[in-house]
Specification:
By secondary structure, this protein is an alpha/beta fold. The chain has a single domain (24-243), classed as Thiamin diphosphate (ThDP)-binding fold, Pyr/PP domains (Rossmann fold), CATH 3.40.50. It has helices at residues 24-38, 72-82, 94-100, 102-111, 151-154, 160-165, 181-201, 214-217, 221-235, and strands at 44-48, 63-66, 87-93, 116-121, 124-125, 131-132, 170-177, 204-210, 239-243. Bound molecules: thiamine diphosphate and iron/sulfur cluster.
């Protein structure tokens, strides 16, 4: 019988251990499919950081270096400079990339490091119980803002992709959403381009993927996906923001 669907080779046999309805599994799959397609499983190093996706080292069947919380791009910088022929990518949540890791993120991007960043924005700190993150929407309920994010007190949510695109040294920046088959296919193309720009142009590539964290949104999985569609996408518009090398 012809097989029409299977596990990417660059995923291990370990099951995903994320909550039901979590988008991390989809993010992992898109990365793994891309590694398979590019044939880089043997010369690729992933950097896992802290957050729910710290567990990705169990799932990606590539070499993985574990970074401290927020320091993924600093670790990736060292790896790429020491091993310029390897493909290096980080897989980071929004608390990781935009809160504790803001300095490392900004400076790696400003230097135009030849790395690929997969940025999972689920609008909160997932692993630690749904606290407010720099990406939390105005009015959004979180465990630390039970009355909803008050932007007069905390400021407006940060659009990381746009900020990083404004830096002259970044090459490819896009934002997509993991909310429907159509959007996931679009996200896959962006993931692929974020790798292509590193491999073919020695450039910095980042793809932000809007993601659902049903547990901390206190929503059923299907409602969490709808929440991402209805609430996140209007504030975080989808599409290619920057593509200076014309990858695609
Ligand atoms: C230096 C340091 N500070 C704080 C923590 C606690 N911590 C672990 S996971 C996490 C939140 C991660 O949230 P995010 O990066 O958004 O990823 P998610 O879990 O939502 O995927 C925090 C604050 C830590 N592990 N290390
Ligand atoms: S807490 Fe949220 S981000 Fe973490 S595994 Fe569960 S649904 Fe996913």
């Amino acid at each position: 019988m012809k097989q029409v669907f299977g596990k990417p080779k660059s995923l291990t046999e370990n099951p995903f251990t994320y909550c039901p309805g979590c988008s991390h599994g989809i993010g992992h799959r898109l990365v793994a499919e891309t590694l398979d397609e590019l044939g880089i499983v043997e010369n690729c190093v992933a950097v896992s950081t802290i957050g729910c996706s710290v567990r990705c080292w169990r799932n990606f069947d590539v070499d993985v270096v574990q970074g401290a919380h927020g320091r993924g791009m600093a670790v990736a910088t060292g790896l790429k400079r020491a091993l310029p022929d390897e493909v290096i990518f980080t897989y980071q949540g929004d608390g990781d990339l935009a809160a504790i890791g803001m300095a490392e993120t900004m400076h790696a991007a400003a230097r135009g490091e030849a790395i690929t960043v997969v940025f999972i924005n689920n609008s909160l700190f997932g692993a630690t119980g749904g606290q407010l993150a720099p990406t939390t929407l105005a009015g959004q309920w979180t465990s630390t803002y039970p009355n909803g994010r008050d932007v007069d007190w905390t400021g407006e949510p940060i659009r990381m992709a746009e900020i990083l695109a404004s830096l002259p040294s970044t090459s490819y920046i896009a934002r997509e959403a993991l909310t429907s088959p159509k959007r996931i296919l679009q996200a896959k193309k962006a993931v692929r381009k974020a790798f292509d720009v590193q491999i073919n142009h020695n450039g910095f590539g980042l793809v932000e993927l809007l993601a659902a964290c049903p547990i901390n949104l206190k929503l059923k999985p299907v409602d969490a996906v709808k929440w991402v569609e209805d609430k996140m996408i209007p504030y975080y518009p989808l599409g290619e923001i920057k593509n200076t090398k014309g990858v695609g």
